[in-house]
From TrEMBL:
Keywords (A to Z) from UniProt: Repeat
Domain Nephrocystin 3-like N-terminal, chain residue ranges per copy: 62-236
Record carries keyword Acyltransferase: no
Signal peptide residues on this chain, from the entry's feature table: none
Lineage of source species: Eukaryota, Fungi, Dikarya, Ascomycota, Pezizomycotina
Full protein name: Nephrocystin 3-like N-terminal domain-containing protein
Amino acid sequence: MVPNYGEGEENAFRRLRKEINESLGSEVLSLDSDQRQILLDSLRFDQIDARQMTIRNAHAKTCKWLLTKPEYIDWLDTTKLGEHHGLLWIKGKPGTGKSTLMKFSLANARKTMKDRTVISFFFNARGAAMEKSTIGTYQSLLLQLLERLPALQCVFDSLGLSSLSIRPDHQWSIESLKSLLEQAIQSLGQSSVICFIDALDECEEEQVRDMVQFFERVGELAALAGIRFQTCFSSRHYPHITIKKGLSLVLEGQEGHSQDITDYLESELEIGKSKIAQQIRRELQEKASGIFMWVVLVVGILNKEHDRGRIHALRRRLQEIPGDLHTLFRNILTRDSHNRDELALCIQWVLFAKQPLSPEQLYFAVLSGVEPEAVSKWDPDEVTKETIELFILGSSKGLAEITKSKNQTVQFIHESVRDFLLKDNGLGDIWPNLRSNLRGQSHERLKHCCLTYMSMDVFTPLGIREELPKAQSQQAAKLRQLANDMFPFLEYAVQSVLYHADLAEESDVAQGDFISGFPLPSWIKLANLFERHQVRRYTEKISLLYVFGERNLPSLIRAHPSAASCLEVGKERYGPPLFAALATQSEQALQAFVDALFKDQLPGSSLNKTQPCYYGDRGDRNLGLSFTFSNQRGVLSYLAELGNKAIAIVKLLLDTGKVDVDAKDNSGRTPLSWAARNGHEAIVMLLRAYRPYLYAFYGVRSI
């Protein structure tokens, strides 16, 4: 916030608050500072800056050319905002060094532009969901903006939240975040904001297109209002998104970019300054075709050759190295046959894990697959963090790295590695046995790794004999921490073994034997160990089908031999498995249950010609996570209350002839009265239509 002359910072912020409140309207209920802080903290998420921290800093002599480019200078010139609306888009081929250039630009802006607020987000396709989505982008940018300009936090007032709905785990929607960010930018006044967003191509295209449109609109409105707001994007050339106004800069062919590679080779290729060494540098640069990632990898290869005293062979080695980045990856992975099984499993884990694994998790995950007899409690004195780092380096042949964030994870060194393995089918080419069903076979193998790790005796080392302490007690929290310290891969294995089995089944790797032989009793005890809420713990009598419904595992539901029993009520909080899917809004699992009921219906059913679908009016009531099934009410009673979204299930249930449409619950209500009370006309008509048949079935006189 820049104060007016003689105004002072405190008065300037007071004036800004007043302007924002006026722009939001007179009916807005102001939140207090504690409530705003809760909302602010809820914007944070793990790995919020992981990608930026992992990108290597620019070499001392590189990237500076950007600061003198006319496009960059014009972008920073606030007198030209009307021409370009504050948008600059830097594009380049994969591996050209776009992210390094963006990190340099970000650091330079923070260092030299003290009068401006600088915010940023770096997409990361190898990271967790929030790192590769626009909802993560908006949360991060909004958090940075409101922390640096606290007066803008009053935009939270526009949400119209009650004090009871303000929680640390507030769930943000894309539209609410966009609205808040737009309001904050429109309320900048004399403040100036510069925003850097890297690697747009590492997010889903539809999300990115929507985000670009948002920044186009915000940039236009800001320029019209004389607000200084500038955004710099970077991405590959594809997908191409047209913007109405803005500046662009392509890395290929830039003299400064070429000079960066020259400077890097002079500094990092440690083969001396002889004529042959200089010739190798020139040949290497020509072969690189501007791909910085290729240069970095080849420099490492040639330095190793030089360190072995093989300077005479350097030119021949350079000639052998493929000039294409993907072919180079293939060359790195196939150059020797050392630990090929370990290499394949390491790559499969980095590619197909449910979420990025920590170094310790990955170490034991790979060990569970290649040396299961060596799996035991982790002793950090024997297997040090340095040992684990070396293991990951060797297992991945240098194509995976450990992030430098607070909560470290393992990812590929560059998104082009993933492109090679999946889009270019590199994994299938290197391991032909995976070619026919890479996804299915990979998830099947990861499932077995989880099962192996789970089969260890963890309860004796943890001192657990009979019952677990209450989930929300301090004792339980300490036990969970001890379990994670002793067995780093255990929580992931327990929570994800069914996830991998479901995706394997979806990819035509049959899971019938897995379902029939699954160690449910021990899994329940392990799942309950890691559960932080007592009400969410499972009973000993839980059915596997209930777990499938609650965890949205549609393929396993379809493979379950008793899927049609999904309306049988057990002792779990949500009642029958189908209700577990409803309560957790597990839509794919719910449809799988409906399909199973459809297949199990009576041969003469009127539904025999129509495949049902549970989807209905989104305005209907949902059960919700807080729902608890009461045995004082029947299944049909709850379904009738839900409304049109449950109509297909109600039809299927009525069609069996096994339910009483007039059964009363403990409050004296029938399914018909529940449907009528909630205005579900279609359900009412359906129940009435089935009454004659049902009365005849039960031998009861119609009323």
